[in-house]
Design a protein that fits this description.
By secondary structure, the chain is mainly beta. Helices cover 7% and strands 41% of the residues. The chain has 3 helices and 19 strands. Strands 1, 2, 3, 4, 5, 6, 7, 8, 10, 11, 12, 13, 16 and 17 form a 14-stranded mixed β-sheet that branches. A 5-stranded mixed β-sheet has the order 9-19-18-14-15, with no helix packed on it. A hairpin with a 2-residue loop joins strand 14 and strand 15.
Length: 249
């Protein structure tokens, strides 16, 4: 099932896909979604970020060669979240910028001290994430605050899909239409369920929170004016264009 948030003249509307249309629901994180109210066409809509997380988590040491390194997480500001087709604001003074195409978890309900085998019970669904990083800032701040929290540095979307095999999902990244990465979640050091379990040992996860589970060789250089497209089988395409930050003189 696909769950989304669509931008309309009346504001952002949470919806689910039903019988070839988007059907309005009360909230994307309601445990039992009951369609009601308006119906909207599947095509031609503008997506907002598919949820409103209180926190966004990402993972370091997440490549296939990192299995011997301990897991390590970082936070991205919830204010850095944006949706499909939203611009990414690049500050030219921060140095090199990279994006990373990542499968991302959306949490369904409060999760704490979760065993890996129980992790699926706490997952609302899956979406595409782009973990954008100011690379030259990473070495200057061990918390990754300077590197990870830029405006619109956490694009996610276009929707949440409840049915997906997260252990074997192909990820393709294109920049200005050119294929630059072709990988699979099977190349991650830790799978989605292990990542959720790890984070829940130290933090309470809640409805709508997002976990970007890692980049299995899906990092790419990103320059002002470039458009990135991240495709994950079954999840659609997340498209964003990098522009110079409008507030930077």
């Amino acid at each position: 099932m696909r769950i989304a948030r669509i931008q309309t003249a009346e504001g952002i509307t949470p919806v689910v896909e039903l019988n070839g249309e988007w059907a309005e629901v009360d909230s994307v994180t309601t445990r039992h979604l009951v369609p009601g109210g308006r119906r909207l066409p599947l095509d031609g809509v503008k997506f907002a970020a598919p949820c409103e997380p209180r926190v966004v988590w990402g993972m370091l040491h997440n490549g296939i060669g990192d299995t011997s390194a301990p897991p390590q997480a970082f936070m991205k500001s919830a204010r850095s979240v944006c949706g499909d087709e939203a611009p990414v604001f690049i500050d030219p003074q921060v140095g090199a910028v990279k994006g990373e195409g990542e499968l991302s978890i959306v949490i369904s309900h409060e999760a704490r001290f979760v065993a890996p085998e129980a992790a699926p019970d706490y997952i609302l669904g899956w979406t595409i994430g782009n973990d954008i990083t100011n690379m030259d800032q990473a070495a200057l701040d061990s918390t990754r605050n300077q590197a990870k929290g830029g405006d619109n540095y956490a694009p996610v979307g276009p929707w949440i899909e409840t049915d997906l095999d997260p252990l074997d999902a192909r990820i393709e990244v294109r920049v200005d239409g050119r294929l630059v990465c072709d990988s699979n979640t099977s190349k991650l050091a830790r799978n989605a369920y292990e990542v959720l379990s790890y984070l829940s040992q130290y933090h309470t996860l809640g409805p709508g929170d997002i976990i970007m589970i890692g980049a299995p060789q899906t990092a790419f250089d990103l320059f002002t004016g470039q458009q990135s497209q991240i495709t994950i089988e079954g999840l659609g395409v997340l498209t964003n264009t990098a522009i110079k930050h409008p507030l930077r003189p």
